[in-house]
Structure formats: C-alpha cells, structure tokens
Amino acid sequence: MSGTDAPGVDLFTGVDALAVGVDHEALPADAVVAGAPVAGVYELGTFGGTEIGVWEMTPGVATDTEVDEIFVVLSGRARIAFLDPVREAIDVGPGSVVRLTAGMRTEWTVTETLRKVYVA
After folding, report:
1. Which letter does DSSP use for residue 11 in this model?
2. Where are the alpha helices (DSSP H) in 14-98?
3. What gap in Å lies between CA 22 and CA 43, rounded to an integer?
4. H or E stretch including 16?
5. Residue 76 in 3-state DSSP?
6. How high is the pLDDT of residue 7?
7. Which of 1, 70, 88, 110 would be a feasible disulfide site paired with 47, CB 3.0-4.6 Å?
C-alpha cells in the first residue's frame, strides 16, 4: 500500500478513522425509505486494487445494492435487513465485522450515525 494513496493521508504513520472529516451528500431519493439520511466517504487509498475507506451515514432508513465488502463498525448503531437474498437482519455497533457480497440488496436502519472502515 502506498503511504500517500489519498490526498493528505499517510498510511505509513496511520490515520484516526474516527476523526477524519467525511463530506456528506444526500442519498438518491429512490433509496431513502424514511427520514433524511445523508452519507459520505473518505477514501484512504487502495491495496492491490481494493478500495479502503471510511463511510458514514446519519440516522434514517435507506436501501442499497452492495459490492463485495468487509467492514468494521467504529461508532454508531444500525440494523441491516437483507432483502435479496433474504436473510435474517443483523444489528451492528462498534466492533461489529460484517461481510457483504456483490448484488445483495439491503436496507439500512441507522439509529445513531454509523461510521465504518471498509475494504471493497
């Protein structure tokens, strides 16, 4: 991994993933189920062609079509419902590690602003 894959990020010395600024944007209207959640990404860089970053979403409910990803929740709380393929919903919070697969349809109910580090 390059130590300077993202502007201002030196991964050789580390970054505080809880403190990095994440610029939020409105989610697509057809993805919002309830509330007015916004989300944003802070890209940390790539490793072997795989993207690494910090993602955050404010409270609300939104759907998504996933990519292959593994993530660790740093802060906040949410329930992830698996719409397709149908699976039992899970509750996530600090320390949760989750694997998502490409094409999965999910519904995120964020009750406390959720911040995660992802590898996708």
Report:
1. T
2. none
3. 9
4. none
5. strand
6. 53
7. 1
